[in-house]
């Protein structure tokens, strides 16, 4: 089923794009991540220009996050106060990201920068996730109990002024910490089309020290509004949002998120995390390969 994408200016198989959206939705429901960190590189591998892939993936992640937020809200897993502070930072970050996007686009380096960011972020986070998962599986098989690290916010967070009490997360910290975290995620969302959950979730656990039972829901809450702001910013500044592409992705992701939420309740969290880590590392390796090898068709545009 061929579908023409007007902004990307090419025809694609609509069923493949819907399948990518469904994969994103499953990841959103299972891990509390927007899934854009996989959708964008997979679309690039499929042949969609990186700028269009990043801009359109952000709008699709919004849809994937909606159903996830509803599910987490019903079980009381969202800290709305913390999430709103991070959303405020995310909106500021999208504005900064828009300026960087236009600057990199003007000098012709946006595609390369997007690929490098993916290699660095996916490679580092995938390695950490794989290491923790393997340690947990080994301990489970040997019957040993891993000593749980005491969840506490980072010393730098404790030094920030103007503390607020975030009751749902069990924290008494400065709002500047989640504000800055949201701002960083907003910049990355604008540049890479990611939801930012694969950065937010570990950061909220190990930097902010949030309670684990509200991390996934709060992450999805922040992702929801930050990706809305990102989509609007892309539509107004870069004009790279392909509504046909985003609609196909969205169609698959809404269903996938519900499937992922149900599956997460039955599967082993440790093994799920290891599977996600392997997927992340494979994508990072493929992105790194794309930066180094010569394409099959090499050409230049030069006067005769």
From TrEMBL:
Q: How does it sit in the membrane?
A: Multi-pass membrane protein
Q: Which InterPro entries match?
A: TM_pro_TauE-like, TSUP/Inactive_protease-like
Transmembrane ranges, per UniProt, are 12-38, 44-71, 83-104, 110-130, 171-199, 205-228, 240-260, 272-289
- Key word Transmembrane helix present: yes
Protein name as annotated: Probable membrane transporter protein
Has keyword Lipid metabolism? no
Give me the Gene Ontology terms describing cellular component: plasma membrane
The UniProt keywords, alphabetically, are: Cell membrane, Membrane, Transmembrane, Transmembrane helix
Protein source organism:
Novosphingobium aureum
Instruction: State where the protein is found.
Output: Cell membrane; Membrane
What the entry lists under PANTHER family is as follows: MEMBRANE TRANSPORTER PROTEIN MJ0441-RELATED, MEMBRANE TRANSPORTER PROTEIN YTNM-RELATED
The domain of life is Bacteria
Which family does the UniProt entry place this protein in?
A: Belongs to the 4-toluene sulfonate uptake permease (TSUP) (TC 2.A.102) family.
